[in-house]
């Protein structure tokens, strides 16, 4: 039985046109961001592109430069294709890689099911790639939920990093304005605060801090962090700042109730 490797994945669609170079840069940036994470080196990275509809004349020249400039270490690279039009493109991808990465590159040709079985033979679980027997992406929502669950488990398993590139849906973002308030993690925290508001109002000062701490722990138990933005990065705030944030939410809720209809 082959070893089924855990893997981080992201899925993208590339189409020919004016936005190609911009989308390519974004793809490389996302890949580099994942590779910069310590867990990615332990769990490997699978980058999957589906249903691309590329016209080779406008793409192949940029692809060579794209691969040459990608400062990535790849433990393995598997290229799968069913249509003959992909043969030349995959050959170009392989020749644009460094010698070390060329040695790790494998090209598979056949039907989608045949390619998935060959990936299984190389230790990659086909169920981790959400495509059907026609090569079409199946359920974006289910795959998104699976990735969120995987990220939550990784948050709980590995040491917390001081900086975060992209906030998780369970994270609480510190800041003012609609983008912060509508974030999923912020809404979940407000729901926790509303549920415990009566208990908080009846509690004494020392107990109030304990309740606020328990609200913070409820967020953290699901893999969430309290983050503050600085430039293009997010930084994890310490526990005392998180407790003060929760306390401020309780006070804001009290004021809204006091100003509400009598």
From TrEMBL:
UniProt-listed InterPro entries? DUF6824
**For the DUF6824 domain, which residue ranges apply?**
171-251
Pfam families per the UniProt record, alphabetical? DUF6824
Please give the name of this protein: DUF6824 domain-containing protein
Annotated organism of origin? Cylindrotheca closterium
State the organism's lineage. Answer: Eukaryota, Sar, Stramenopiles, Ochrophyta, Bacillariophyta
């Amino acid at each position: 039985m082959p070893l089924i490797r855990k893997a981080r994945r992201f899925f993208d669609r590339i189409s020919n046109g004016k936005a190609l170079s911009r989308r390519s840069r974004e793809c490389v940036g996302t890949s580099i961001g994942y590779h910069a994470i310590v867990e990615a080196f332990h769990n490997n990275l699978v980058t999957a592109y589906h249903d691309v509809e590329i016209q080779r004349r406008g793409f192949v020249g940029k692809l060579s430069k794209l691969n040459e400039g990608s400062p990535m270490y790849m433990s393995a690279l598997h290229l799968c294709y069913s249509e003959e039009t992909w043969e030349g493109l995959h050959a170009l991808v392989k020749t644009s890689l460094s010698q070390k990465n060329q040695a790790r590159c494998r090209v598979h040709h056949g039907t989608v099911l045949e390619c998935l079985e060959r990936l299984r033979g190389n230790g990659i679980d086909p169920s981790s790639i959400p495509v059907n027997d026609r090569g079409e992406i199946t359920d974006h929502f289910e795959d998104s939920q699976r990735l969120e669950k995987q990220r939550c488990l990784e948050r709980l398993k590995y040491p917390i990093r001081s900086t975060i590139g992209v906030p998780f849906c369970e994270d609480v973002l510190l800041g003012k304005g609609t983008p912060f308030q509508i974030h999923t993690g912020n809404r979940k925290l407000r729901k926790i605060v509303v549920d415990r508001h009566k208990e908080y109002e009846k509690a004494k000062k020392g107990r109030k801090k304990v309740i606020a701490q328990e609200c913070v722990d409820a967020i953290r138990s699901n893999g969430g962090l309290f983050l503050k933005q600085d430039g293009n990065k997010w930084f994890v705030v310490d526990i005392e700042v998180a407790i003060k944030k929760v306390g401020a939410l309780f006070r804001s809720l009290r004021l809204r109730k006091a100003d509400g209809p009598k």
